[in-house]
C-alpha cells in the first residue's frame, strides 16, 4: 500500500510517516526509539516526529 501511495498519480500530497519512523537496518520495522513496544504503533517520540512533519499551512 505504501508503495502505491508513494507512486500514484492524482494525489495532492503525501506525508510519509512510514519512512520517517522506519528503521533503516530493518525497513519493515519501526526505529526502536519510536516503537511503543508492540512493534506496530509509535510511542510518544514517534508521534512527535509525525506531528513535526505536518505543515499546517498546507491544510488551508
TrEMBL record:
This is GDSL-like lipase/acylhydrolase family protein. Gene3D superfamilies: SGNH hydrolase. Transmembrane segments: none annotated. It comes from Paraburkholderia acidicola. It comes from the Bacteria.
